[in-house]
Amino acid sequence: MAHFTYEGQQIAYTEHGTGRKVCVLLPGLLTSQRMHIPLAKSMAEQGSRVITMDPLGHGDSDKPVEMWRYSMRQYAREVVALLDHLDVSAAVVGGASLGANTTLEVAAAAPERVKGMILEMPVLESALLGCAMAFTPLMCAQTFAAPVMRGAGKVASLVPRRFIPLLGEVALDWIEQDPAPGSAVLQGLFFDRVAPPREERREMKAPALIIGHPRDPVHPFSDAGLLSNELENSRLLRANSILELRSRPERLTGEITQFVTECWAPKKRAAKPRARRTASRKPAASAA
C-alpha cells in the first residue's frame, strides 16, 4: 500500500498489475479498498493495471473529524489527484455505492479523465428514504454513543483475520473504525449533494457498466434502471444478490473485465468513402 498527499492529508492506494488498461476502484461508504482486492487481482491477471483507493475518512487514509472535508465532489477531486500523482491521463473509474456516486462526480467534473464507468449500486432519487432510515441512526450512534462504538471497535480489532472470508473482513473493518471521523463523513455527505443532478448525468458520454441489486432498499434496482436510461452509452447488469460480487464473483468479474477491455480497445476509424471512378469517354470522331 502506498500514499500520496492531497490538501495536507494522506490518501492510501494500492496498485495491482501493470499495463495501459488503467482502472481505479473505490469502496462503499465507511468500508475500505479491501472489498475490491479479489476483483483487482483477477483483473490484473487479465492484463489490467488496477488501483484501489481509500477516500479520505476510509480505510488507511487519514481521518480528520471536520465534516467540511467530506463530500462526493471532494472525493472526485481526490480521484483526479490520484491520477495526477500516478501520471495517468485517463482511467476506467468505478466503485460500489459511495464509489459509484464518486465515479459520477469524476465524470461530471473531469470527463476527459474517464475512459469508462463501473457503477455498482448507484444511490439516486429512489434511495432517499432507505438511506435516511439506514444512516440517520448510524450517524446518531456515532455521535452520541461514541464510547460504546469504540468499545465494539476494540473487540473487532482483536478478531484474527486469517481465516475470515472477505465479507467478514469488510464488516470487521467497518466496526473497528473510530466513530468520530465516521460521523463527520456522514454529516459531510448529507450536507452536500449525493450525486450529479439528472441534467448533468444525461450529458455524460463515457461508456458505463451499471450493476444493480434486487431487494436492496438502500440501493434500489430502480435507481440503476433510471441511470441506465439517462446514460446514452450504458449497459445494465442485474446481479443475483447484493453479495454476488463478493461471494460468487466469477460471472460479474468476467463482465467487468470485458467492459474494461472494451473501454481501452482502439477506436476503429470510419472508412473513407471511395471516390467514384467514371469511365473516360473518347471524343466522338468528327464527320468528314
Walk me through the structure.
The chain is of the alpha/beta class. It contains eleven helices and eight strands. It has helices at residues 37-45, 72-85, 98-109, 128-144, 146-157, 166-176, 179-191, 198-201, 221-230, 244-247, 250-264, and strands at residues 2-6, 9-16, 21-26, 48-54, 91-96, 114-120, 208-212, 234-238. Strands 1-2-4-3-5-6-7-8 form an eight-stranded mixed beta sheet, with helices on both faces. The protein is globular, with a radius of gyration of 23 Å. The model is unreliable at 278-288 (pLDDT under 50).
Uncertain regions spanning at least 5 consecutive residues: 278-288
Q: What is the class of the domain at 2-127 and 194-264 in the CATH system?
A: Alpha Beta
Content-based structural category: alpha/beta
The strand order across the widest sheet is 1-2-4-3-5-6-7-8
CATH arch. level architecture of the domain at 2-127 and 194-264: 3-Layer(aba) Sandwich
Under CATH, the topology of the domain at 2-127 and 194-264 can be stated as Rossmann fold
